[in-house]
Amino acid sequence: MVDRLRRLRPRLLRLLRLLRRLRRFVPRSVRARATFAATAVVTLALGGSSVALLAVLHTNLLRTARDSAVEQAGKVVELASREHLPPVLSPRGGASVWVLDADGKPVAATPDLLFRPLAAPPAPKLPGPHAPVPPAPVPHAPGPDNGLLPYPSGEPPLMLGPRIHDRRQQVITLSVTGPDGPLTVHAAASLRDVDAAGDTTGTALAVGVPVLVLLVAAVTWRVTGRALRPVEAIRAEVAEITGHDLHRRVPVPHTGDEVARLAVTVNATLDRLEDAGLRQRRFIADASHELRSPIAVLRTQLEVALAHPDPELWPELLADALEDTVRLQDLAADLLLLARLDAADPVAVELLDLTALFADALAARTADRIPVTAQLAEGAQVLGNRTWLTRLLTNLVDNAQRYATSRVKVQLALQGPLVVLEVSDDGPGIPAADRERVFERFTRLDDARSRELGGAGLGLAIARDLAGHHGGTLSAEPARTGARLVARLPKAGAEQD
């Protein structure tokens, strides 16, 4: 077996090389490939069907001819078994029948197998008075063993014709013993009708199949072209769209098919790209504005310190400069974290107990303006990054500390497959119309107060991205007083349960 596979290996390699060469002749466009595939399939199907049709037709006609010969031979056998056969058999079908005795001499035959005497020649002209009279022809008298069949009623004998030697016949041979002794009955059905039917059908198929294949190719080419015309329009429109033309959209055909859905999807993608571009430009403008303000203040403080080298003013100037430097550092850290979240860089995750993690994070907050009240349920375990989940809690508590009047409350609870973190305060709250807008970057509902308290409008945006990277959500929900921010994270092992 191994030797045989080794011998076949060169042939397989040659076949693979041949197939690779043929790939160069395969059309590249979808329209041409679809037409080629449809034409090839129809050609194979019609070719196979034509061959099968001709085979079935030939088989049925042969069976019909054989049945006719068997039927005629059976009738002669039945007649020969009862009585003497007449020399000339009455034709009862399309088959020719001849009967031979034990010595192979003809006994009976159907009329189509017999030689009849020719018609009498025309009378010769009378000779002139001096013309000799031609002698009369002497008819040949056949002997008893010359293969001639006697006519009934003393008529001249008949001789079997050459048709019994025609090869395009279906011949059936039967034996019978009757009053004439042992006889052999031959019945032959002509196959000329079979050949004629096969030739006619083959000619019709030879003409019809190519015409039908060409028709299928033309229809496929036209239908495919019309179907792909919207795709070409979409491609041309997308090719012309640049970073400055994201407002343009591709045409949507009214067909409601896959091409229409493709156009809708492309337009939706362009909507997202345009929105991303707008948000990026707005983010760059806001970041530049946020960075310009503390840098300008820091520069002013340094210029004042240089212009007034009074040692008594330096502590105040240095304290203000340090505050602005810390603000710049925090803003740069927030921008770097947002860039990392947008890039979806992988981070290390582990099984964390949020109860212990949040308790430690809240215990470390010793300089809060308002003490934090915490209610942390036991068994709140999630898969996540320790630093990012701590930052999530810190941003929510910082936001509450910025606006609270006298109360900041943190609750950690279990709700089915979710771990729910809720941070609330008794501040002015968030209007219902702004509960989504507060999560946009550099968004401040009270711009003057936020700048005074040191907020850049990135804390809640970062918190929502952190919750989303852990498979959770963050939303601002209604509250009786103040603001209420709720983060929902999947509990560890919830999918396995």
Q: Indicate the CATH architecture of the domain at 346-497.
A: 2-Layer Sandwich
- Helix-strand pattern: HHEEEEEEEHHHEHEEHEEHHEE
Q: What best-fitting shape do the alpha-carbon axes yield?
A: rod-shaped
Low-confidence stretches: 116-158
The CATH class assignment of the domain at 346-497 is Alpha Beta
How many DSSP H or I helices? 9
Distance between the termini: 53 Å
So, the CATH homologous superfamily of the domain at 346-497?
A: Histidine kinase-like ATPase, C-terminal domain
Instruction: Please state roughly what percent of the residues sit in beta strands, choosing from under 5%, 5-15%, 15-25%, 25-35%, 35-45% or over 45%.
Output: 15-25%
Model description:
This protein has 497 residues and is of the alpha+beta class. Helices cover 50% and strands 15% of the residues. The protein is built from 9 helices and 14 strands. The protein has a 5-stranded mixed β-sheet. It has a 4-stranded antiparallel β-sheet with strand order 2-1-7-6. It has a 3-stranded antiparallel β-sheet with strand order 3-5-4, with no helix packed on it. Strand 4 (148-149) and strand 5 (158-160) form a beta hairpin. Helix 2 (30-82) runs antiparallel to helix 3 (192-240) and helix 7 (386-403) packs antiparallel against helix 9. The chain is rod-shaped, with a radius of gyration of 53 Å.
